[in-house]
Amino acid sequence: MLLRLLKVFCLALGTAFNCMPLKNATTAMPLTKATLKKILELNEPTFTEYIVCPKCNAIYTPEYCKRSGQFYAVVCSFKTYPNHPHRSRRKECGTQLMRKVRTKAGTVYRPLKIYPYQSIKSAIAAFVRMPSFIECCELWRRRNNFRESGYLTDIYDGDIWSKHKEFLDAPYNYLLTLNIDWFSPFEHGRYSIGAIYLTILNLPISIRNKPENIILVGLIPGPNEPELTLNSFLAPLVEELNTAWTHGFEVHTVEAGQQQFSKTIRLALTCVACDIPASRKVCGFLGHRATFGCNKCYKTFKHVKEDTGSWTNYGGFDRHQWPLRTNEDHRRQCAEISEIFRTQGTQSALQAAESKKGLRYSILLDLPYFDPICCTVVDPMHNLFLGTGKHMMEVWLHGW
Question: Which residue of 88, 151, 213, 341 is surrounded by the most CB atoms within 10 Å?
Fold first, then answer.
């Protein structure tokens, strides 16, 4: 609409002032975004638009929903309880994925919800072709080791970096942090969209979090957040990360002398940094109000019921009495929950097993090296910017 308005405005201006060059220029003005990008030679990220089920959040490739290159009326075929003892509960979701749209050419089908996803292979390839990107990713090797002096100044001084020393000793091997957060694109109204993005930890901290150095992986459609997990939306990312870990991505780049070189880039996901609700949905933990609400230990939070209502008791700070979670136990218990769901196949059996063990399955466990216990980082940014810390201090002071 803006491009068409600009063309009409320039044509009217050229006619009013009898300016032939301006009138002639309007004939070459683009009317679509694709034409504008082609004229300006803009190399923007290319996104694959997965089709999302509005009910169960299952995703489908565009090819799955097309016939002869055109969308058609297709329904969701996902089975939430494929092994349920009652046959009637094993049925497919059956939710319509398309809507009818009337155009000048006739009635066509369009997806109700889409999930734009950017391949990390193409994103990394674009970064590698940028001047000085590879050099910047190697600067950490020449920095001082502050940990030996008793200081932690960056992730390079922490345990996560040390655990991946063998992986990082090889050139062109990069560590990633996964970030997920929701935001409202509108000033008014309750509509929430989730952003999935990656940061490259090998880059210096001064440029690591700049927008041009962040990989926007996908946008989770609204209007509401998924309730329990994000497994369906993370599935394409995990598939690429497994390839990046085992085989790597072969990237062609041109270096000095205009000679083309081929480099194998390997990637590993080390940290998931987000707020508490998002961390539970991504890494396979229960909510903070659950009996096992901590993602680091098995301390129980008792639920107290009174005449005035119910509340969760977070007291008891004897840390020596808190049994710690481990990656091995977490994976073993997730396998036990999956087996219970496979054999019994009911929602009640699944929820009972999850509540008893204090966790649920996350697709990130398909990454053989990923440790959801030590690699889940709760981002304090929300507490600082939203004033939660100040509010809690007021509550405590008021209680005293």
Answer: 341
What element of type H or E holds 102?
strand 98-103
Confidence of residue 175 (pLDDT cuts 50, 70, 90): very high
SS3 253: strand
Which amino acid belongs to residue 160? Answer: I
Distance, in Å, from the CA atom of 201 to the CA atom of 211, rounded to the nearest integer, reads: 14
Angle between helices 327-344 and 347-357 (to 10 degrees): 160
Which tokens go with 163?
């655990």
Element holding 195 (H helix, E strand): strand 193-200
> What whole-number distance in Å separates Cα of residue 360 and Cα of residue 85?
22
DSSP-assigned beta bridge partners for residue 259: 255
pLDDT over 70 (residue 43): no
**C-alpha distance from residue 253 to each of 130, 260, 336 (Å):** 9, 6, 46
What is the token pair recorded at 123?
């994103």
Q: The tokens of 301 are what? A: 């939070």
Sign of the Cα torsion 176, 180, 185, 188 reads negative
Residue type, 394: E
DSSP 85-100: SSGGGG-----B-EEE
Residue 109 confidence class, pLDDT cut points 50, 70, 90:
very high
